[in-house]
Automatic annotation (TrEMBL):
Superkingdom assignment: Eukaryota
GO molecular function terms listed in the Swiss-Prot or TrEMBL record: dioxygenase activity
InterPro entries (UniProt xref): Ty3_capsid
Keyword check for Oxidoreductase: yes
Protein name from the UniProt record: 9-cis-epoxycarotenoid dioxygenase chloroplastic-like
UniProt keyword annotations, A-Z: Dioxygenase, Oxidoreductase
Length: 210
């Protein structure tokens, strides 16, 4: 039985260490290729021979000849080609990231976490600053008033607040366009308000337990 050689896809980009290339993005794509091709740990260095050039190729050659491993190669590649402006660029993106009209709170949170996870280190207070600055003013004020200082607590509460605001807006629209259904409107509003109070109490109990 002939065993098929496990290889990365030919579409895998070549990393040459060019300042315009992001070593972290390249490593991410290569790792995804390893998973797709089911390449074993001991074969990873040889698997990327055709996907590096110039200085990265020399670094790879050194690791192969010394019978090193993927982790050591990856760490040296990161330390050699880490873009010193990378973190600053990401922080600039965080500053411009806003929960604008048309962008759901879930998408805002997803984009925010994607950016912060790319930064090598970010303190909790800095994360909270950027997160709250991008929120709508009403949500931001509520988080400040409730003295929420931990991102893991701020995110679910912000989602609750935004969901409540959207629901109220829908009911107001219904009221303005269906004035004959005032009784139904009041019932829906009161039910929603009760749910809102319950969610806040639940959040408080959960926060007290932590």
């Amino acid at each position: 039985m002939i065993t098929k050689t496990k290889r990365l896809e030919n579409s895998t980009p070549i990393f040459s260490g060019n300042p315009r290339d992001d070593v972290y993005d390249w490593l991410f794509m290569v790792k995804q290729g390893f998973i797709s091709a089911n390449i074993e740990e001991k074969m990873k260095l040889n698997a990327i021979v055709n996907f590096v050039s110039d200085l990265p190729l020399l670094i790879l050659k050194k690791h192969i000849e010394s019978q090193s491993n993927w982790i050591s190669f990856e760490n040296e590649l990161k330390s050699t080609f880490r873009n010193i402006n990378r973190d600053q660029k990401i922080r600039s993106e965080l500053i411009s990231l806003k929960n604008r009209e048309g962008l759901s709170i879930e998408n805002y949170v997803s984009k925010f976490l994607t950016l912060t996870n790319k930064i090598s280190f970010m303190a909790e207070d800095e994360k909270m600053f950027h997160f709250t600055q991008g929120l709508k003013e009403s949500t931001k004020r509520e988080l400040v008033c409730r003295n929420i200082t931990i991102l893991n607590s701020a995110i679910p509460l912000a989602i609750q607040l935004e969901s409540f605001t959207k629901s109220v807006a829908k009911i107001n629209y219904f009221r303005n366009n269906k004035s004959k259904n005032n009784v139904l409107f009041k019932k829906q509003y009161l039910d929603l308000f009760d749910l809102w109070i319950y969610s806040l109490k639940t959040h408080n109990r959960f926060h007290d337990m932590i």
